[in-house]
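Ticket 4471: requesting a sanity check on a complex prediction with adenosine-5'-diphosphate. Repro inputs:
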Amino acid sequence: MTPDLDSLVAALDGIADPLGGGGLLTSGRATPPRISGETVTVVLDATGLDEAQRKTLDQTVTSALEAAGATKVRLAMTAERSGPIIVAVASGKGGVGKSTLAANLAVALARSGAQVGLVDADIHGPSVPLLMGTGSARPTAVGEKLQPLTAHGVKVLSLGMIVEPGKAIAWRGPMAGRALEQLIEANWAPANLLIVDMPPGTGDVQLSLLQRHKPAGAVIVSTPQDLALIDARRAIDLFRSMHVPILGLVENMAGYACPHCGEVSDPFGSGGAEAAAIALDVPFLGRVPLDPQIRAASDEGTPPATGDGAGAEAYRAIAERLRVALNL
Ligand code: ADP
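Returned structure tokens:
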């Protein structure tokens, strides 16, 4: 049976924040509960809590949610917050539009008033300089720290900015890992939210990135095809094994936006990814149509989320759901 959201919210906010400020929702310690099938997911911010407090909080929240009707509770405790909150954008395989989504989500979040940074960690094909139109500009360093560039209201760093242009990135794991480290530990202020365009797949580089810089959550991108969804499942499993909550699934290239009238039609049927999200037990964040204008604008370095139209609206709606999921 699906639990009742109001009861869960009341139960969660009925627990006092161990450091004061009211109930867990009021104080911002917990994200609002998300219900997916029979599973209730809550993200708790561990900032300022010692080990014993974290343990007690974990147990108290689990029992309270169960008493309020949740059959399965999934709690994620984010690491002590020092740098920006990290959101990983990932896919099981390349070519599904992961980088395009990461860039446009960052722009849509910035448009809605968030201070956002975008990290292009895609060692196989860094495309953020192209997508964000930063061209061949390179970041400077102050002391040990890289200074991100700014484009379309977003702070940006890409592996493509710190390796020689045109040079194939055939790095071995440790080298790629160190370079990624530099990007994530750059001087991101005032950005307090980092969207990380992850390398596709589920290899060692992804694993070490997740170990060192634990994201607050992950967004999984997939195309409607079954095969891509099987890959999405693999990506989801990787994050789950690292206790990173899945914020949701985005279906990209879903339906076709007519270049003449803008109307979105579904030549191959619709609802596949939504059904898959239910089967995978993850929230569904939305769909982005297959739209020739998205590709054209991306190729010109003007993220479609900066404009209006079907694409921009889709990115805006997904960004909005992401803010709710992250309690921002
Ligand atoms: P990935 O990062 O998964 O490898 P990209 O973001 O580089 O994929 O996208 C692959 C190609 O698909 C790019 O040419 C991009 O412009 C195009 N693309 C991505 N999303 C869409 C969309 N919704 N409609 C049309 N083209 C898209």
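Notes from triage: The radius of gyration is 20 Å. Leaving this open until the requester confirms.
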